[in-house]
Amino acid sequence: DMGDMGDMDMAGMEHGATTSVADLVTKADGPPDVAVDLVAAQGEVTLASGRKVPGYTLNGTSPGPQIDARQGDLVEVTVRNESVTDGMTLHWHGVDVPNADDGVAGVTQDAVAVGEEHTYRFVAEQAGTYWYHSHQVSHEQVIGGLFGALVVHPARGSRNAADSDTVEAMAVAHTYSGTRTLNGEEGDVPFVAEPGQRVRVRVVNTDNGPTQVWAGGPYVVRAVDGYDLVEPTPVTDRSVTLTGGARLDIEVAVPDDGSAVRLHVGGATALVLGPEGSVAPEVTQPTEKLDLLSYGSPADLPFDVSDPDRTFDYDIGRRPGFLDGRPGLWWTVNGKMFPDVPMYVVREGDVVVMRIHNGTSEDHPMHLHGHHAVVLSRDGVAATGSPWWVDSLAVDPDETYEIAFVADNPGLWMDHCHNLPHAKEGLVAHLMYE
Length: 434
Ligand code: C2O
Ligand code: CU
Prior knowledge:
Strands 21, 22, 24, 26, 27, 28 and 30 form a seven-stranded mixed β-sheet that branches. A hairpin with a 2-residue loop joins strand 26 and strand 27. The protein has 434 residues and is mainly beta. The longest helix has 9 residues, at 15-23. It is 6% helix and 44% strand. The chain folds into three domains: 5-153, Sandwich (Immunoglobulin-like), CATH 2.60.40.420; 166-288, Cupredoxins -  blue copper proteins (Immunoglobulin-like); 310-433, Sandwich (Immunoglobulin-like). It contains four helices and 32 strands. The structure holds CU-O-CU linkage and copper (II) ion. This is Multicopper oxidase family protein. One of its GO terms (molecular function) is copper ion binding. Keywords: Copper, Metal-binding, Oxidoreductase. It comes from Nocardioides iriomotensis. Residues 42-155, 331-432 form the Plastocyanin-like domain.
């Protein structure tokens, strides 16, 4: 859970509600296609440079091992907590897993105590770039390194299966004790590729804050939060915002002339794609940003948003008060402070429209568990580009987004800010099926 939010989660809801929700879910049977064993530990993280920082590891490293699955695979991950004193869990960020496997301590399971283990099983139905992380004292454990990347490769022969002439790279951004890294490395991170090669880079932002992504040449945003965009065109002279918890699949072409090309993820870290030993020209950050609201080609949505079954407001505010007995300036949802925020109640099959308004002076990466939502509009301007599916959406000060989703995954789900200290400070709501 969100640390001390855990106890409040339980205080704020009928205990019976959690039990009945868990009972709705049946685990996939049969032998797993992908089986992974992880050991979680607390202590030190060794960065690629050899420098050690305090933190958490999975199988001795942070990021933890990358998990690769193919669409349709039954994934089984067993984690043993060796030494994480507060207990830990694994949440499959962006994967619409059955509720019982969502890994939220205090909501869908108890935290896994030292010496215990827990097994997660889910079918990886949606191809795309995801990540996993602890959901217990998240503002410490995720920031401290208890996470890894999860890639679900498209089923063979499917429409979005990568061309055989495109290679794939990872760029997992994380800041350890003030040091910005990509895949655990500082500064320039080389990725060897042939001249003319196209590289699809799966960029994951595990930090609390947003980062800008840009390349030293034209690039194409292929996917957002695991979902492929329809007919995206090459982008030049623009950066694209990657909010906390979100992912972007970005395709870059390695120059034909034997040089390399930089793909910046923030100012301090870049993937350098080119032949061994090749040099990439420096590239300054573009001043303009790509607007995903109008990027790519429109396509029909798989559900009708014209007459939603539920319309919700998620109004983010801030005011002084008490949280867990502590006085402070806390976040509010629709004017209410946690745990007095009413749950958003849906029935299976409902088409839901949610209006998210940020009435505060900070930006919030809003993350809905268990569902993907499509962006309908921002500040009253309708989306005109490719359907833009999100599980993690940057809502800047004074912005209003309208998003829509189908309630097709029964359970009890968090809908919170992924700037994890904000979640600890009350920016949390829940979606519940009646
Ligand atoms: Cu990435 Cu509720 O978490
Ligand atoms: Cu926030």
